[in-house]
Design a protein that fits this description.
The structure holds 2 protein chains of 2 kinds. Chain A is mainly β. Chain A has strands spanning 4-7, 10-13, 19-25, 31-38, 42-51, 54-57, 64-66, 76-78, 87-94, 103-104, 108-112. By secondary structure, chain B is an all-beta fold. In chain B, a hairpin with a 5-residue loop joins strand 6 and strand 7. Chain B is globular and about 45 Å long. The relative contact order of chain B is 0.32. Classes of the chains: A mainly beta, B mainly beta.
Chain lengths: 113, 116
């Protein structure tokens, strides 16, 4: 059982470039989310989804887009990368009604020059 | 809105000493509370959770936490630290009851160092 899989693990971008961080889960979880982790700031929610075709904004959505065409996949898109988006990104999922327990991927470390 | 505050961004203990990591929450409704651990270069994994059953919650690796409503606290403890406990620990509160849209709000984390 792979759980939550994120790719790539590392990425370096130049300012203005675009890219997509991939996230896939094989646990049939309805809820999926993206967090960013920055030193001294903990994890902050970017976007989340409660099922295919349904997405919503979290605490820090600006500069990021998401879509949810299948239950398994929840990609995060940066349309025009900025240095402020240098961070470690985590995808997490859970089943509906399961006391909020999240299952995390191993993270994607993004550097924007 | 729900929030959590973790007191102490860095905590250092000696091997074999008591571990105490502090977390206070703010919630307008009875909360679900969680402690997660993150080892270097890894994702977060659940240590334990409080979901309105027993106020003393036991988790993995010998950790436990006590929910104290009067103090709005959910501190994490372990009687005897081990070198392998060195990691970053995050307290989190759920802003709902496990419903479709409830989200986890994380604290800023406490980095635990264990000295030999």
């Amino acid at each position: 059982n792979a759980g939550v899989t994120q790719t790539p693990k590392f990425q370096v971008l130049k300012t203005g470039q675009s890219m997509t961080l991939q996230c896939a889960q094989d646990m049939n979880h309805e809820y999926m989310s993206w967090y960013r982790q920055d030193p001294g700031m903990g994890l902050r929610l970017i976007h989340y989804s409660v099922g295919a075709g349904i997405t919503d904004q979290g605490e820090v959505p600006n500069g990021y887009n998401v879509s949810r065409s299948t239950t398994e996949d929840f990609p995060l898109r940066l349309l025009s990368a900025a240095p402020s988006q240098t961070s470690v990104y985590f995808c997490a999922s859970r089943r509906q009604g399961q006391d909020g327990e999240l299952f995390f991927g191993e993270g994607s470390r993004l550097t924007v020059l | 809105a729900q929030s959590v505050t973790q007191l102490g961004s860095h905590v250092s203990v000696s091997e074999g000493a008591l571990v105490l990591l502090r977390c206070n929450y703010s919630s307008s409704v009875p909360p679900y509370l969680f402690w997660y651990v993150q080892y270097p270069n890894q994702g977060l994994q659940l240590l334990l959770k409080y979901t309105s059953a027993a106020t003393l919650v036991k988790g993995i690796n010998g950790f436990e936490a006590e929910f104290k409503k009067s103090e709005t606290s959910f501190h994490l403890t372990k009687p005897s630290a081990h070198m392998s406990d060195a990691a970053e620990y995050f307290c989190a509160v759920s802003d709902g009851y496990g419903g479709a849209t409830n989200k986890l709000i994380f604290g800023t984390g406490t980095l635990l160092a264990v000295q030999p």
